[in-house]
Amino acid sequence: MNFSIMPKIELHCHLDGSVRPETIIDIAKKEGISLPSFDKEAIKEELIAPLDCESLDKYLKRFSIPNLVMQSRENLKRITFELFEDAAKENVKYMEVRFAPLLHTQMGLSVEEIIQSVIEGMKEAEEQFDINGNIILSCMRTMSVESAFEVVEKGKRFLRKGVVAIDLCASEEEGFCGKFIEPIALAREYGFRVTIHAGETGIGKNVLEAVEWLGAERIGHGVFIKNCEEAYNIVKEKQVVLEMCPTSNVQTKAVNKFSEHPIYDFHRDGIKVTVNTDNRTVSDTTMTKECDIVCNEFAMSDEEYKQIYKNSVEASFADVKTKEKLKKYLLDI
Hints:
CATH superfamily: Metal-dependent hydrolases
Cofactor: Zn(2+)
Pfam families: A_deaminase
Distance between the termini: 9 Å
Strand order of the largest sheet: 1-2-3-4-5-6-7-8
Number of strands: 8
CATH architecture: Alpha-Beta Barrel
Number of domains: 1
GO molecular function: 2'-deoxyadenosine deaminase activity; adenosine deaminase activity; zinc ion binding
Oligomer: single chain
Order of helices and strands: EHHHHHEHEHEHEHEHEHHEHHH
Radius of gyration: 18 Å
Family: Belongs to the metallo-dependent hydrolases superfamily. Adenosine and AMP deaminases family. Adenosine deaminase subfamily.
Structural class: alpha/beta
Shape: globular
Strand content: 5-15%
Keywords: Hydrolase, Metal-binding, Nucleotide metabolism, Zinc
Helix content: 40-55%
Largest sheet: 8 strands, parallel
């Protein structure tokens, strides 16, 4: 199967983990921002996490450089546009991009200006390429509960104008869901859909709590439901969709190697899985690469890929019209 020309859908992609290295260099030169190097290959060494990365926390350190150049409206718009352009070139037909607005306030931008800039970059790409998208606002688990309320309150005006959902991300500790019950409940009340990073490190119970306490409709990663029967069962019974990212999961040591990834076992047991990049630059990957990995490691058939594509359409936070459009691409598979 030639995945480079197959229609694809991505539901889990971080904006700051998917910045072109050459864009970082270009912006830094123009704005006098200090980098470890202005050589593209050297910057890639700084940005890309190796497959033998030690942990999720070590992986997350790769995001510090991109954040330096993501502090203006113009730069946020450009970086978002380029991400959608890159995805469209490999025949991704729909993508949900997530980012944490509060990481981009260092030069004085308001949360509203930040969100608007990202939406503008996406809309411009939609006009130029055969791709549709939506934005997910991430709240940082390492920040206060008040910061999550701020993202929810200031983000609500953009609902149905490009923003569709709320997320919790960053370093994962046991029991984090209890801290954020109230802001996520408020988000649901306003109309945000809910996807939560959970079970990316060895804590399957976090997935159970994300579903039961936060109303998560989708789970980012969810690898460690394999070690928590209650979490496994609730995901399967409620058909909570897992946004799985094979390369990233090897890098963060959620699994030691691709052949040990549970995505195919989950799929065969009736759990709804999707394939995603997580971070195109930090994981040095594309949707084509991720689909190739799953297909090659587990001998995935055409029909199985169609099912995963359908899972992605149904689980997306797109409107009905967009979903109908995406379903028609199945005719090309």
